[in-house]
Amino acid sequence: MRWLERPEVDALPDEPMAELERRVAELLGKQAALFFPTGTMAQQVALRIHADRRGRRAFAAHPQTHLDVWEERGYGAIHGLWLQPAGDRHELMTVADLAAIGEPLAAVIWELPQRDLGGRLPRWEDLVEQVALARAAGAAAHMDGARLWEAQTFYRRPLSDIAGLFDSVYLSLYKGLGGLRGALLVADRATIKEAAVWRKRLGGGFGEAWPVAISALIGLDTLLPRMPLFREHAIAIAAAITADGLAGVSPDPPQTPMFHIHVPAPRPAVERAGAAMIAEHGTQLFARLRSSPDPARSSFEVSVNENAMELAPAEVAALVRELVERARAV
Length: 330
Fold this sequence. Notes:
The chain has helices at about 15-25, 40-55, 65-70, 75-80, 95-100, 125-135, 150-155, 160-165, 190-200, 210-220, 225-240, 265-280, 315-330, and strands at about 30-35, 60, 80-85, 105-110, 140-145, 170, 185, 250, 260-265, 290, 300-305. It is an alpha/beta fold. The N and C termini lie far apart (about 65 Å).
């Protein structure tokens, strides 16, 4: 049998991935962008570059930063970095929180919006002040912008204005945009050139990436322009849910198309009620239920996108009422 040798693929196809990288870099007012198979890899690479340039190994972020809570602390296991948590885990990070850190930092990360806080965002003036403080101390400013597309609906500024505050920005291609998978790291050309080396070291380059790029490009054209409508619908749903006082939302009103619904019932009871609703009429209100410091309460995340536009606010409020009533009856 004859085997035909297939050449090793080190680089992603020129098109349409190059078009996606070019468009997003231009949208954010940055010099270049680079595709990564995961946001986990993209953010670790950004931190590693900032740390090596400054000769510092610590970075600061909110205590509920995705890198610490959901990524097995890869920044430490792989890159020898460590986290200085800034602030209270149930509140947004503040200037005072950053100023209280005594160790020299390689970078500070801002997650915009803060998913584990219901999609909350700092006021623009507060964000500018925080970034200025970090820069004055010699730290890089990095944005965990997995949902930057949604955050823009709150700041109502061009994406380039928001991204312009930061040295590097990570963007998700499937959260908000509905792409198949993947992420982009956006920064200056020198940083992206160095990031390409780290991507190869970590095994992040592969061929046949055009389906990923095309799906993200479709999202840029069809979903990104609708983000303000998604936020308006989220606000309407939240208002309908809180109208009778049975459940609450956070933040109220929602700042982005994402928010949390807080229900007056413990997590085990709500989980059983949710499972019963799925079994009886196929309605799933949440993927993951969050516990609360108050054992009599729990919460879950709502993300309003294209599918949610099909649901009237009153319909969603009725489903939440049913969930609470079932949980209380358990």
